[in-house]
Every structure is written in structure tokens, then in C-alpha cells.
Design a protein that fits this description.
alpha+beta; five-stranded antiparallel β-sheet; two-stranded antiparallel sheet
Length: 315
């Protein structure tokens, strides 16, 4: 967003009077984020990035979910929201992020399981945004068809053959998932990773609800496990803590299938992002959401590296 437009938005929609101070926290994959101070109060501005593309966001549904999440003390309090322009201003929340060590602490596994139960207890806004692994795969597959990797040499190249093999493997897992006992869809955050988690000491809070949708509750457990590269025993402990009992074989199998499919969806998302941003200069923004990508100086290179890791893990 141009500086003059940015200042105009802030002056009109940030509460209070007096001088505005703001600085960029980072350009994410689809958003720009700023810390804003006016008087003694601090806020966060999130706005759609100038060159953002449709990567499966639903900002209007996010706004409706946010109302419920804020009421349950699961999200920062918004002071202004314009889904059409991708603008969201929320109150600043003090807290700390988690490290990989924090993620694996037994006490934090229990806290994360409780956080997910609270997310999944939120009332589902109607009409519900129902999504599934199959729908995400269809969505990103269609987007990749519209924005192909022009650097692929031939249809017989190893990369193309590998993509076909993974597509077939995904189809087998979707079939295996379909024969397991069904579950009622719940509100899922769908973008659970440490960059979206704030530990306030006595409670946890989540940022960036734009990928939220109604789905199998274990989709969030699969996403947290996949994005943090959790070992099988840690994922098992998370599932046991979430269910409050030793997991049934069907539950653990469902989590395994969803974990593989979550990685596959992230792989497709990463490939789409790299294809869309292939001609951009490296170092102009830093990664943010929906893919387990750490903050790097070169987001495109970082996403591509994560895609390679995911492809190797999926195989």
C-alpha cells in the first residue's frame, strides 16, 4: 500500500487522536503487516500485499469467524475490518513466540490441544465455508494449471513424473480417508504454526484466521504437526491430549492420512506461490502464512526450499 494511502487509512480508523507512528513488521506472502502506535496504544495493521494473488483466502468468512474467536478470547480484538480491501486493524497483543523446543514440551502439547478444542467449539458461521483436503487439492491443482511452471522442460522430466506420482498417492489417501468413520465439521484455523501463535503467559492467542474454514477437527492437529515437523510420538501425544483418551486406531490413522495430505496441500501451495512470483526480486518480503516457511530474506527461495523438503518427505 502506498505510504500516503496507508497514512490515510490509519488516521481515519485507528482510535484516538494525535501523531501516528508506524513501521513495517514485514511483508508476508500475501499480506503487509505494520505496528502502529497512537498515544499510549499500539495496534497491528494487516493489509493485502500489493502483488498478492488468490491463494485460497476468504477474508469475508475470516471476519465472521473473528467475531466468534474474539468473543472466546482466541484472537486479537479488531478495531477496523474491511474484507473487500484486505484491511484489518487489531489491538496489539503482548506475548512471546514458541521455539521448536517449546512446541515439544509436554506441558505445551497439552496447552495446544486445549487451544484446538476451544477453536473447534466455536459456532460455525452460516453459510459454512466447508473445505476438505480433496477441495484444497482441487483448488490449488486448478490454480497450477492456470499458472504452470514454464521452466519445466518436458512432460517426461523427473519433476513432472514426481508430481504425477504424488498426485496418485494423494488420490489413494483420499480414498482411504473416505472409508473411515465420518466426523462433523468444525471451525478450523487451518494455518497453525508458531508465527501465528502468541503466548501471553496465562493463555494462547492466534493470529491470521484468513484460511479458516469448517472441516475435520483433526485437520488442525495435522497442520500443527506438519508445520512443526513433529515426530510421530509427539503427534501421538498431541492426539491423546486432544481426545482426552488413548487414541483409537481409526483416529490415529485419520491423523496420519490428514498429515500427509496437509503436507501435499502445502507443497501445491508452495509451487503455486513460486510460479506466481518467479519474476520478482528476491529479498523484497518475508514469508508468513499457510506454509511452514521460516522468516527468510529470500521468500521465494525459502518457499522453494520448503517445497523440496515436503516433496522428499511425501515420497
Amino acid at each position: 500500500m502506498p505510504p500516503d494511502e496507508l497514512e490515510s487509512v490509519l488516521s481515519r480508523h485507528v482510535p484516538g487522536e494525535g501523531k501516528l507512528e508506524f513501521h513495517r513488521l514485514g511483508n508476508g506472502l500475501v499480506n503487509e503487516t505494520y505496528r502502529v502506535v497512537r498515544g499510549e496504544s499500539a495496534y497491528v495493521l494487516r493489509v493485502a500485499a500489493a502483488n498478492s494473488y488468490d491463494l485460497g483466502l476468504d477474508r469475508a468468512w475470516e471476519a465472521r469467524v473473528l467475531e466468534r474467536a474474539v468473543a472466546a478470547d482466541l484472537a486479537p480484538v479488531p478495531v477496523y475490518c474491511d474484507p473487500q480491501r484486505g484491511i484489518l486493524i487489531t489491538r496489539w497483543v503482548d506475548g512471546r513466540p514458541w521455539s521448536p523446543v517449546d512446541v515439544r514440551r509436554q506441558s505445551n502439547i497439552a496447552r495446544m490441544a486445549e487451544l484446538m478444542r476451544r477453536i473447534h467449539a466455536l459456532p460455525v458461521p452460516t453459510p459454512a465455508r466447508l473445505m476438505s483436503p480433496a477441495k484444497w487439492i482441487e483448488y490449488y491443482g486448478a490454480a497450477l494449471t492456470r499458472h504452470p511452471d514454464v521452466s519445466a522442460e518436458t512432460s517426461a522430466s523427473p519433476d513432472v513424473q514426481g508430481a504425477r506420482d504424488l498426485s496418485a498417492a494423494a488420490a489413494r489417501r483420499l480414498t482411504a480417508l473416505s472409508v473411515l468413520p465420518g466426523v462433523d465439521p468444525v471451525v478450523c484455523h487451518s494455518d497453525l504454526h508458531t508465527l501465528n501463535l502468541v503466548d501471553r503467559g496465562d493463555s494462547l492467542l492466534l493470529l491470521d484466521w484468513e484460511y479458516a474454514h469448517a472441516a475435520d477437527p483433526l485437520w488442525d492437529l495435522a497442520g500443527w504437526s506438519a508445520n512443526n515437523d513433529l515426530e510421530d510420538n509427539v503427534s501421538h501425544d498431541l492426539l491423546a491430549s486432544y481426545t482426552g483418551r488413548p487414541p483409537a486406531r481409526a483416529d490415529y490413522l485419520r491423523l496420519q492420512l490428514l498429515g500427509w495430505l496437509y503436507d501435499y496441500v502445502c507443497l501445491l501451495w508452495s509451487k503455486l506461490y513460486v510460479n506466481l512470483h518467479r519474476n520478482e526480486r528476491p529479498g523484497v518480503d518475508s514469508p508468513g502464512v499457510n506454509s511452514p516457511v521460516a522468516a527468510l530474506d529470500d521468500p521465494q527461495g525459502g518457499v522453494a526450499a520448503r517445497a523440496r523438503l515436503l516433496a522428499a518427505r511425501l515420497q
